[in-house]
Amino acid sequence: MSETPADSRSPGSKLMQWLFNPFRFTAGSKALGSGLAAILLAGLFGWMGNTHFDGIIDVHAGVEAPLWCFMAEGLIDWISMAIPLVFFGLIISNSSFRLIDVLGTQALARWPYLIISLIMLPAANRRVNAYLLSSFSQAEGSVTVSYGDFAIFAMAMIVTVCMAVWTVALMYKGYSLSCNVKGPRAIITFIISFVGSEVLSKAAVMYILS
Predict the structure, then answer these.
(1) Handedness of CA 105, 90, 95, 193 (dihedral sign)
(2) How do beta strands 60-61 and 51-52 pair?
(3) pLDDT in tens, 117-172
(4) Which residues sit opposite 89 in a β-bridge?
(5) Phi/psi of residue 3, each to 5°?
(6) Where are the extended beta strands (E) located within the chain?
């Protein structure tokens, strides 16, 4: 996988490639640097809005924690997914590949979570989250929310789901390109990696939060 693959498509097509397959334009150390920057920025904004990325694609709001915890969550999610993909790539790929390409593409694949961290910043999300938690737990004392709060929260949830799906698609595309794998074996090993990584990342995040 080359460091900066060339592309001669039209501007509109190139934009779609940047959005849905950025690995054709950047890989290796550049993708790793860009991806880690996005992960750490998402952690910073997550800290500002009390938004936790406590799983491969999980998003939860409302629990205060130190800044380092939010940063660590994103890094744990990234490395928890990259390691099993490297393992399966070594098993099923018919060609050699670079470790830094897998690490870089999986880091860059998480950039949509930067959008989630921004969309979750408004205090309305935390108010609705607190209201829902108090309603489910039947705790005494009420949290005042408005229709506007619910509208902002609903929009944030829609964006979050879209970004999560987008991230999973980018993760698979990055795996397929960096390890040069495709077809049923690539899909099956990706799913196994995803499920295993979700458990691993959850356990690791719960450990550091404890």
Answers:
(1) negative
(2) antiparallel
(3) 999 999 888 888 888 887 776 655 567 888 898 999 999 999 999 999 999 999 99
(4) none
(5) -70, -45
(6) 51-52, 60-61
